[in-house]
Specification:
The structure is a homodimer. Chain A is an alpha/beta fold. Chain A contains 13 helices and seven strands. In chain A, helix 8 links the parallel strand 5 and strand 6. The radius of gyration of chain A is 22 Å and the shape is globular. In chain A, 45% of the residues are buried. Chains A and B meet through helix 3, helix 8, helix 9, helix 11 and helix 12 of A and helix 3, helix 8, helix 9, helix 11 and helix 12 of B.
């Protein structure tokens, strides 16, 4: 049986092998191209928030609750790299241990590599594999750090942003542009002081944002077609508010289907992947150029102060364009 | 007089014009190539930390204090973009108002653009312009968000990371890899509770990191040549601890000069800029490819589900390589 057949027949060992190969950036264009025709059925859900915000614990409760409808759930937990965080992947497993015995749930952790764009490609590919493997809902979880968040928004049809009470976390999130990608906002640890203040602060920021959006796009939406970002208060450790979060996930999916927005987001994701793959190809060429004898010579001249980088790159690209 | 001559003769209006042109990503390769030969004299200092950590206030006091040695100071304040933060640039000016009357200090704010890699190129170019304009020390300040931080470390000979007391900020910094770029760590608002706990926590993390560094590099350093990252406690609003920070900035520069590490970092910065410029050239080509009739057709087939992105990109690159 082919790897692809094994995966769609539910062989978890083959699935794990396949995801490892994608994570290692093996040459698997042919395989991904083969499974691509079997994707497009899953509801893709992103969940992001700063470290310590309780994302994993919320995800654990949310998936457990949503399993009552018998959907198969795939979870991709992405860990942006740092030499300090080797324990994070294990930590995710511990916080999601409620789900480990459930055969309808598949959890996969993924660490970041150094290569520019490497993770983005791996995340997109892994989602497609889980989709082809028949998971009904696929959750992608990451910490609120730069590129990983952009990837989550581009890959998700529903994006959940988890914040902590107090001004610090929400200001940081708004600075980093994270609020702009949220379809649902969760204030976790809402039993702490300042939680209600944070909520009204957020409502204000979202109001400003939605106004400027409408002006920018010059669009006239009928009120029925507008999704108003809900703010859900949770206490992840006790499970409080997770039912309300699940309801909002279902409502958002219904909104996406009813308004045609799902198709818009599906198309945006395809455009994003197409661009990502082109980028990767060009990066490979960049790496190759840097290894060329001609490039090494140019760099050496730069080091000796015998040329400037602007002229060096101009010369190199002229040579590249004619070869 | 040429723009370049005007800038090195101290014309601030010409300097501002030139920096605006770089920020707008005008085609100024020729100009940057011309000034490049006059760079390499300034001490480049990066300062980063999460929003609200007090970076600007510290920088204000630090520059004021260091001005007593009569060095000319250039400050580049970078604001990673978000539609919510249009007031940030003004805020920086307010926090640095002590410096506004001083003719030996030049402050420039820079906002992020959407273009991938656009800011990185603009930051590197602006530093070179300030360097050629004769500033002895150039400070680059940014909020702790993703790519901007990587740019700061690559552009600086001395990197200062500002943290707040309490576990949250330092864990976030270590997750994001920010601690790894620090030459000097500042714990600001050290009059708050938890400040001393934060310091011992950080010392522990730095100890783990330096051990793993030594193993990774397999290097045997004589103790004289090792820079041990100092942790300075400050209260930015009262100026407490800023003299100690200044002393550490001077010591680090002396360390860089004495050990030859300055030359290593200067070379790394050149390599980084060279790579950045090559990347930009390839991005221009990517944008051009995406506009090609052939690419638009491929994308349309993808949208209709008549092709998969992997095959589409493979075809497109084959065509690109032969044209």
């Amino acid at each position: 049986m082919s790897l692809f057949r094994e995966i769609i027949s539910g062989n978890r060992q083959s699935l794990a092998q396949c995801l490892t190969s994608i994570e290692n950036e093996d040459d698997n264009y042919h395989f991904l191209s083969e499974i691509y025709g079997h994707t497009g059925n899953a509801h893709l859900i992103g969940i992001t928030g700063s470290p310590g915000s309780g994302k994993s614990t919320i995800l654990n409760s949310l998936v457990k609750l949503m399993r009552k409808n018998d959907d198969n759930m795939g979870i991709l937990a992405i860990d942006p790299s740092s030499q300090f965080t080797k324990g994070a992947v294990l930590g995710d497993r511990i916080r999601m241990q409620d789900l480990l015995g459930d055969k309808g749930v598949y959890i996969r952790s993924m660490a970041t590599r150094g290569a520019l764009g490497g993770l983005s490609n791996a995340v997109a590919g892994s989602i497609d594999v889980l989709d082809a493997a028949g998971f009904d809902r696929i959750f992608v979880e990451t910490s609120g750090v730069g590129q990983a968040e952009i990837d989550i928004a581009a890959n998700s049809y529903t994006t959940i942003v988890v914040l902590l009470p107090g001004a610090g976390d929400s200001i940081q999130a708004s600075k980093a542009g994270v609020l702009e990608i949220a379809d649902i906002i969760v204030i976790n640890k809402s039993d702490y002081s300042h939680a209600s203040l944070t909520k009204s602060h957020l409502l204000e920021m979202l109001d400003i944002a939605s106004h400027s959006h409408n002006i920018d796009n010059n669009s006239i939406n009928s009120s029925k077609n507008i999704w108003s970002v809900p703010i859900v208060s949770t206490v992840a450790t006790s499970g409080e508010g997770v039912d309300e979060l699940a309801d909002n996930v279902y409502s958002h999916y219904k909104y996406l289907c009813d308004t045609g927005e799902l198709e818009v987001r599906r198309r945006n994701r395809i455009r994003y992947i197409y661009r990502l793959l082109l980028q990767k190809q060009l990066y490979t060429r960049l790496e190759n150029i840097l290894l060329e004898e001609r490039s090494i010579q140019q760099l050496e001249l730069l080091m000796q102060g015998k040329n400037d980088p602007y002229t060096a790159v101009e010369h190199l690209m002229k040579w590249f364009d004619t070869h």
